[in-house]
Amino acid sequence: MPSQPAAPSKPRIIPSLARLMPYVRPYLPRLLAGVGAALVGSLLALAIPLVLRALVDGPLTHGDRDAVWPAAIAVLALGLAEALCIFLRRFFVLQPSTYVEASMRRDLYARLQQLPVAFHDRWQSGQLLSRAVQDLGQLRRFLAFGSVLFVVNLLTLVVGVGVLLWWSPLLGGLFVLLSLPIVVVAFRFEQTYHQVSRRAQDQAGDLATTVEQSVHGIRVLKAFGRGRHALDGFTSQASELRSTEIAKARQDASLWMWLTIIPFVSYAVCLFVGVWLVTVDQLTVGQLLAFFATAVVLNWPIESMGFLYAFAIDAANASVRFHEVVDTENTIDDPERPATIAEPRGRLAFEGVRFRYQDAPDGERDLVDGADLVLEPGETMALVGSTGSGKTTLTALPARLYDVTGGRVLLDGVDVRDLTREELRTHVAMAFEDATLFSRSVRDNVLLGVPGADDDVLDEALRIAQASFVHDLPDGIETVIGEEGLSLSGGQRQRLALARAVAAKPAVLVLDDPLSALDVDTEAQVEAALRQVLAETTALIVAHRPSTVQLADRVALMREGRIDDVGTHSELLARNEHYRFVLSSLEEAERNREVNL
Ligand SMILES: Nc1ncnc2c1ncn2[C@@H]1O[C@H](COP(=O)(O)OP(=O)(O)OP(=O)(O)O)[C@@H](O)[C@H]1O
């Protein structure tokens, strides 16, 4: 499966994070309160050296031991107030970050629902899953802790350096000068960490795709004894991700190391110069002590910048990955001034229809290459053609699963692109060979297109689709089926999918070989019941079995992207050699199928 489009190489941190503003804005007051609490906490920590300096240069120098107690109580009070501020920071930021995560997740899911099938053809499911779960979790953690600490530690550093300069302009200036290499280290870190962080996120998405696909295809893997092979593939992907995570951790550790070494070298030089300043009476012992007590307080903000910087880059990449999905242009949208069909009759016309998939090689002819076909109201048209001739693709166009790339599809004379998708899909219903059911009750699955419809609609749909077996399920029509529910046979699934299409009572029913998994007797019963429905409904049925062709009023033969011939089954048999050839291959396939059953 082709993966999602390549990512831009290096997004910028601030613009990428600023794009989260619409989600953050409603919670900004609480977030700012969190930043405020954290900032007050940090400033309180910076105040402790003031007490120490007052103690050393005052009472201790004059031998006044009684003054130690008030100073100790002041330090304790400052410590307690700092702890309270840390609690308040968490209290203020926890809720906003979880709300932001939830609303971003909802928007992502809504976008996935809106985006056309062509988008889902190109994107791996695991990539979408990892964006919805892992990336948004990363953004929540960054909002809750990373962003707040980043801002607070940066401000603490600015204030702290100001305090150092105040204690001693010479020592403070020296400290700043000697710390400048941090800027170079941070710049180099950003150059490389961006890519490795993005690679890790993409690889986590690939890994999720592998898990999803192998869980989905577990029967095939087991039937072909490919479990070991799948495990080997998974292990190698997992170890690639591990190597990337290690590369990330190495770069992070290296930054952390320099953020520890550089300040300590600065402290050592400052200590040397500071002691000299004390000996030449340019500085008091209390000032020197306060200078270093402040420097120690600044140690954490400096060191933490290492992982916070990495955290910010991870979050920026997560934001970019989120926006790559939500910014994807929806190529199948509703018209600005939609038309409407008040009383649909179900006349379906393909006029010079062309279609090619986005990833079709240049120079290759269009898959649907100028198809013309008219289905009169109430008519049942079978669509036949050799394999790969584009039948399934053509049937996806009336409901706009894909949009034509040329020509038009008309429903009762209205271009389907002029209707809202909601209206169009009440007029056109589909059932596919690959019957997808959701982990919900039988009722919910069948009434998917007509939620809230009454039991009569449900019963009739189940009767037409010969799906009365549902009444024997443990909880009848309330039985939960699908992935996390009861397993059904392929034929049972197809009948429920057919019931779903029929229940919607559409003007046009598009059936892509929906009876392929049924035995011949059941197929005959379904067809007999369908005949009643199809008397009022226009139907386009992709037929892979001769018996399905018999159901139709007329047959359209698709060949090389066009409708080669249209007529009754016997007319085509009599006049079209390609039709005879296609039909004999269908009959042969059917014979082989019966032998295998
Ligand atoms: N989502 C897709 N993206 C790109 N190419 C596709 C996609 N779906 C189908 N194709 C290609 O389009 C061609 C026609 O496929 P389609 O399923 O429409 O044919 P078909 O006539 O229904 O075939 P069959 O009888 O085997 O079901 C095939 O070559 C297929 O590889």
TrEMBL record:
Residues 32-314 form the ABC transmembrane type-1 domain. This is ATP-binding cassette, subfamily B. It comes from the Bacteria. Belongs to the ABC transporter superfamily. Lipid exporter (TC 3.A.1.106) family. The chain crosses the membrane at residues 31-55, 67-88, 142-164, 170-189, 255-278, 284-302. Residues 348-585 form the ABC transporter domain. It is found in: Cell membrane. It comes from Agrococcus jejuensis. Keywords: ATP-binding, Cell membrane, Membrane, Nucleotide-binding, Transmembrane, Transmembrane helix, Transport. One of its GO terms (molecular function) is ATP hydrolysis activity. It is a multi-pass membrane protein. CDD domains: ABC_6TM_Rv0194_D1_like (cd18543). GO terms for cellular component: plasma membrane. Signal peptide: none annotated. InterPro entries: AAA+_ATPase, ABC1_TM_dom, ABC1_TM_sf, ABC_transporter-like_ATP-bd, ABC_transporter-like_CS, P-loop_NTPase, Type_1_exporter. SMART domains: AAA (SM00382).
